[in-house]
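If it is no trouble, can you show me the amino acids of a protein and the tokens describing how it folds?
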Amino acid sequence: MKPEFIKDSIDSVLSQQDFGDEIPDYKTVENSIALLERMAEVENSSIAVFDLYKKEFVSIRSKYREYVNADLGEAQKYGPAYYISIMHPDDGPVVLDAYKKVFEFSFNLPVEERKDYKTIFNFRLGYQGKYFHFVQQIVTLELTHSGKIWLGLSLSDMLPENEKFEKVTFTYKFIMS
């Protein structure tokens, strides 16, 4: 799948959440993002913070980009759509559909519950027929003052060779806040 098509599909779902005239306060999260970036270094994980208002990544720190030949410029341009476009052909459509369902569900939650869920995916990323298995967790990091879902945090880890799987799975579960 082409990242342009995927981005349009994701953007149409994101547009269901109307921010109106509200502009998020970016100064309130600068320290949090710096802390998350440092955490990714220490944990040897990849993190991404996605801005649902601007529909772009605020931060991407990838420990695995050389394995999957990831282009961070393309990731910045297309957002999560870029990563879906480099997934195994069987995984991309499933993950795209799951993203849509999770966003729609989350946007319809009462404001006080919007940070109480996380999504856990497994999928394969790669290129030229060589794919690596990943697990990813996504949580709502920040809401706007009016309760709109503003920033999403994604934590990703490459699975060891002995933990391969046959197909994508995802769960959306309640977490204690």
